[in-house]
Design brief:
Blueprint: E1 4-12, H1 17-25, H2 28-32, E2 35-43, H3 48-56, E3 62-67, H4 69-79, E4 87-92, H5 98-102, H6 109-118, E5 120-129, E6 132-134, E7 137-141, H7 142-149, H8 152-155, H9 161-170, E8 177-183, E9 186-192, E10 194-198, E11 202-203, E12 206-207, E13 220-225, H10 230-239, E14 252-257, E15 259-265, E16 269-272, E17 275-279, E18 282-295
Helix pairs in contact: 3-4
Length: 301
């Protein structure tokens, strides 16, 4: 059994009280039995989780994130620059919970809490994007446009890859942009409708069509999507589960890299882990084995 001294559990303090009481009740018993001191912190506003991790994270042996991908993203940004980064665990309680899926964490809150008590710890890669960080994915083009078009009120109803695809199709037309990139020293100049960088294996709860990769190999998958439409979507879906992408059509370019830089014309909004708040240009750098996470026995990276 794992044992921790001081642990901090971060949760959405603005969530419905009854729902949060029920969620906390499903996991506190397991956590209390393996933590000498368990502090609960309910966030009060956006970026609160990031701030508390940056200011207080180094005082704890374990950070427990109770929430979805947005909360995980905030916490990662708060923890990434700490000199002494604590062990981190996820109790998935969001719409998609994509990073937790990649780490083999049960989507059942009780089982996820039990994993904190008995699971393994591994350091996973985090990607630096200019002065920000992401753990799961980064994208420009139609993926960022789709994220901005998502209505928060219906986000909880959908939340699968089919929802993202549907969002893509609702755009009247995909707007091409030109870009210049340097990917591990190789120059690439193209027109595209989307550039997508995957550090994890899931988006919208659905697994990406990638061959098995480790979560701590120091590499990300970079996809350049040159055309939109049903043919591209069909190709991506057909590849699911095979670990192969048909790149012969020229619609998809695929690279695995440690670093990249990207400049777009015109400037594009950037989606990081489902959050849109920065713009191109960008420099990406994989920080290998940067944050220790508690993982499932059969991680799916």
């Amino acid at each position: 059994m794992n044992h921790y001294g001081k642990a901090l559990l971060i949760y959405n303090g603005k969530a419905g009280q009854d729902d949060m009481d029920s969620t906390l009740g499903n996991c506190i018993g397991e956590l209390s039995s393996c933590c000498d001191e368990l502090t609960l912190y309910g966030t009060k506003s956006k970026s609160d989780a990031e701030r508390i991790c940056r200011e207080k994270g180094g005082n704890f042996e374990l950070i427990i994130i109770l929430g979805g991908d947005g909360t995980v993203h905030e916490c990662v940004n708060g923890l990434a620059e700490l000199a002494d980064r604590p062990k981190t665990a996820i109790l998935p309680a969001g719409t998609c919970n994509d990073l937790s899926r990649s780490l083999g964490i049960s989507q059942d809150i009780r089982q996820a809490a039990r994993l904190i008590k008995y699971g393994m710890t591994e350091k996973i890669d985090i990607v630096k994007a200019n002065d920000r960080y992401f753990s799961n994915f980064w994208g420009v083009g139609i993926i960022a446009d789709a994220s901005q078009n998502v209505n928060e009120a219906v986000k909880g109803v959908f939340g699968k890859l089919s929802y993202y695809l549907s969002a893509f199709q609702t755009l009247q037309e995909a707007k091409n942009f030109t870009f210049k990139a340097e990917i591990d020293g190789k120059a690439v100049e193209e027109e595209a409708v989307m550039v997508f960088v995957a550090n994890g294996r899931f988006i919208g709860t659905s697994e990406l069509p990638l061959p098995p990769q480790k979560y701590n190999d120091g590499l990300v998958d970079i996809f350049i999507i040159k055309e939109a439409g049903f043919r591209l979507l069909k190709e991506l879906l057909a590849a699911k589960g095979t670990g192969k992408l048909n790149e012969k059509s020229g619609e998809i370019l695929h690279f695995r890299a440690k670093s990249a830089s990207l400049e777009t014309m015109p400037i594009q909004n950037i989606d990081m882990d489902g959050e849109v708040y920065t713009e191109t240009p960008v420099k990406l750098e994989v920080l290998e084995q940067h944050i220790p996470f508690i993982i499932g026995e059969e991680e799916v990276y």
